[in-house]
């Protein structure tokens, strides 16, 4: 708006300058008459407006607040350098254990005197680690909100520069500001960008930045209430000096939410959305096994977008099912150009996955579809009824068999091998490797193989993994031969309807009897 006004004024005075100059050159008595003083005033104002416009049109030079000089910092508006977040623990659903652990830190900041009387010191650093999207940043903001502290937020990459000393200076400036605004909370996201392990080939600038961070963590005065919270997805990359007590005293693992936490998170993300009365949040929580808080927020938002797209007044269960498929399987291909022969192969492939899952009773089959989504020509949605943390060797065999059910069905019906099983083979191989190297479930013994051992024993490991996967594949072929009629029924129904949900699959199979549980010897016997 300001720029537009300057342009209009500049345009008017340019016209006046031209008119005044024209009257002098032409000696024309018709029209407005300008004296010499008027012409000088008009030219002067025009020049000033032009110079001001050029300065206004110049792009702004942006710089991070932490690298300003001391003189500029005094003139900087405090709102640009830090915030006072209003987020509290009420905005953080789930994570009850972590919130209880953080309650001590919050109480220390709010009532530091009673701790100082007992000689207790506030934890200097708290490290959140775990998979992405689990709420680490939100927790840090909630700590500042609960204590009404000043919140300084930065990313680890902001301290990484090619010029030596710049990153260390930014660290010093950040901590100086935090001390001045105490009580305060410093949050460094993706701390592994500056806190990675030091070695002979490491970058000198990164080492100096990390050294400065270590010094600052050690150098807090006891009368300053400053808490440093860092977050990372790769704790194994961090330098040991950063993790020792006295720097980051508390390490808190933020995992993906369990079914109860997912229910609470979904309630938070749907409280302002018009939901159909038939929707049960508890059932939605069961359908989203293994998903993070970020996934759940995305699913809630996608369901609302789909409802708007369909001109619906409320968000229904079908909208949430579509949103879950969108997040898990990808975008639906609207006009697929799949040959009929390929469609038949995909139908039997997905039918093989679903049938083997029903035979072995591994996970609940929610949906089987041959509608292309993302890069997949078909998919099977399987979710466990309960959260599981420990699996037996037998259950892992069953999981591999379900993964190989598609390729086994193709070989049984069409007597060929296709490229459609690429992702299944990748997952089966990864699980087989975990069984051999991590869980000690092979003839190599009850050992855990580290990276150097894996490299040295690669041939033996490959033989064991191939033995596991091959044995499961042949057992899967045997199971599908036994239930070949049901395999054909599912594939035919998929070719007719393209999609089957869990209830339709149950109805199609009728009084289908689940196969008895196999022992390890029976599974390996081919």
Automatic annotation (TrEMBL):
Acts as a processive, ATP-dependent zinc metallopeptidase for both cytoplasmic and membrane proteins. Plays a role in the quality control of integral membrane proteins. Coiled coil: none annotated. GO terms for molecular function: ATP binding; ATP hydrolysis activity; ATP-dependent peptidase activity; metalloendopeptidase activity; zinc ion binding. GO terms for cellular component: plasma membrane. Zn(2+) binds at residues 349, 353, 424. Keywords: ATP-binding, Cell membrane, Hydrolase, Membrane, Metal-binding, Metalloprotease, Nucleotide-binding, Protease, Transmembrane, Transmembrane helix, Zinc. It is a multi-pass membrane protein. CDD domains: RecA-like_FtsH. Its cofactor is Zn(2+). Homohexamer. Residues 122-258 form the AAA+ ATPase domain. This is ATP-dependent zinc metalloprotease FtsH. Its EC number is 3.4.24.-. It holds the Pfam family AAA. One of its GO terms (biological process) is protein catabolic process. InterPro entries: AAA+_ATPase, AAA_lid_3, ATPase_AAA_core, ATPase_AAA_CS, FtsH, P-loop_NTPase, Peptidase_M41, Peptidase_M41-like. Binds 1 zinc ion per subunit. Its main location: membrane. In the C-terminal section; belongs to the peptidase M41 family. It is found in: Cell membrane; Membrane. The active site is at 350. ATP binds at residues 130-137. It is an enzyme of class 3 (hydrolase). It comes from Alkaliphilus metalliredigens (strain QYMF).
